[in-house]
Amino acid sequence: MAVYTEVFDDDLAEFLTHYDIGQPLALKGIAEGVENSNYLLMTDQGPFILTLYEKRVKEGDLPYFLGLMRHFSEKGVACPQPVPGRDGTALRRLKNRPAAIFTFLPGAWPRRPGVAQCGQLGKALAEMHLAGQSYPHTRANALSLEGWEGLFRDTGHLADEWTPGLSDEIAAELAFLKDNWPHDLPTGVIHADLFPDNVFFLDGTLSGLIDFYFACNDLLAYDLCICLNSWCFENQREFNATKGLHMIAGYQSVRPLTPAEIEALPILARGAALRFLLTRLYDAANTPKGAMVTIKNPMEYVDRLRFHQRVRSALEYGLRP
Amino acid sequence: MAVYTEVFDDDLAEFLTHYDIGQPLALKGIAEGVENSNYLLMTDQGPFILTLYEKRVKEGDLPYFLGLMRHFSEKGVACPQPVPGRDGTALRRLKNRPAAIFTFLPGAWPRRPGVAQCGQLGKALAEMHLAGQSYPHTRANALSLEGWEGLFRDTGHLADEWTPGLSDEIAAELAFLKDNWPHDLPTGVIHADLFPDNVFFLDGTLSGLIDFYFACNDLLAYDLCICLNSWCFENQREFNATKGLHMIAGYQSVRPLTPAEIEALPILARGAALRFLLTRLYDAANTPKGAMVTIKNPMEYVDRLRFHQRVRSALEYGLRP
Description:
Two copies of one chain form a homodimer.
Chain A: H1 9-16, E1 24-29, E2 36-43, E3 46-53, H2 62-74, E4 92-94, E5 97-103, H3 115-132, H4 145-155, H5 159-162, H6 166-180, E6 187-190, E7 199-202, E8 205-209, E9 216-219, H7 220-231, E10 233-234, E11 238-239, H8 241-252, H9 259-286, H10 299-310
Helix pairs in contact in A: 3-7, 3-8, 4-6, 4-9, 6-9, 7-8, 7-9, 9-10
Pathway (chains A, B): Amino-acid biosynthesis; L-threonine biosynthesis; L-threonine from L-aspartate: step 4/5
GO molecular function, one term (chains A, B): ATP binding
Family (chains A, B): Belongs to the pseudomonas-type ThrB family.
């Protein structure tokens, strides 16, 4: 839920002089995304999304993200498209923030994703991974091992307030992952945050992906493990292997996993769980009281991490033998 | 800013089986209104607004409000229209709450209303008052003198936390208003909350009014005084008589005020300032911490109340002699 920056009608009128997208009919702040300010902009040519980038997104990364969305769309991966102004530029400034207009992606994210949706997501993720292979730009993953260590230094001491001993548990997991993290798996552009609220469905069919502001170059199978974490648990903590089976099968129908990737799934899943545990701890500690943002519970990812620690083989995720 | 109740895609699909408004393309929670949950619903027939009524609106009052919006629209007052389902009913239930779909009113509310907009607002308010004369239903104003006394009993003791002595000041004002409130002025349907965020403009022209959930039968000139309070102050506390002049002149171009109404303007303006002072004190005391609502500062209305207490004649509001 987020509208951080209020856009006045005269601000909008000036901004729209740079575009050929018709006359504005309405601008509604929408409760979507937690990193940026998002508005639904209606013009006489139809709906658009206006995004203002707040401080958490680095301005220097925006050309990578916007170029990626353009690239994906050219390759047939449905996602919002940055709309260029008359000068050909999609990225400009509004209210002293970087801002861009995007095409409107129809659909709604699934509040209770089912088995069929997990299967479609797996397939779309693999298609995105293949499409990303030809994207010429790169961006390091700021939230991989080194980033996790930094987050832990900043907020690890607060972990015990959530549950006694959690700080030690995280330290041990970090040490384990550092020693065992795979480095020779296939890499490419990953979404890195493909939770259900970033995937739209229309009439039961996946209609597109949104929110590429964590995208980076990293292990492809790690991206799949982020999705296993965020789509396949019931009641926040029980892994649903049927959903996992459909997600992995959907993925492999487009891009078969290598034997090394399959073997690495449990450790990649542990890393993914730890990543969201750490950022949630960080967000809980750093969100000002009264901010119009719902704090997400870090403990859900403690349970998921412990689940993955017990997993002995990718078969337990639903991989077909 | 408000989205209190989350609507899932299957909830929406079931709800829409009652309507002939096309296939849903998107449902976006919008940051508008603080009393209800509002969604922008896009279908292949265009945009609509879906409203879920939260507990602050009495369910028994909804037929009055929805009927009023229908009546106003028939009389040429632009406002959202309740969309009837196939059974002819506009009001049904969704997520265990009363809910209705409305036509989409284009436009945006003015963040910095200027003189010309104040003039248009005055004219639209008078047109609404005339149109309301033929509405056959009535609803008492729950937030008139008696309501204010009730609010003061509940939250008056907290007023001194905002500024020392405020509680006594309010008590004295309540006593004064009780002794001096006019009872023989023209009455009719009033909006009772026509702040700038409830009035849309498109290309500089007033395109319609929204949010009729405080509408009731009361003194028409009191409604104008609510607008003088909410549209005509600069920097929250300095009355701009040029804006007042244009608003009153706009109003009188459609419905001339009676001499008794003109004489009563200062006391009605005091009442209006006190009403919003009291409800803001109440809201500040009763909004749970962390609720995704911006607390509005009650003190703005202390300053406005004190201004009105010094006013000796409606000429000071910009009334043309």
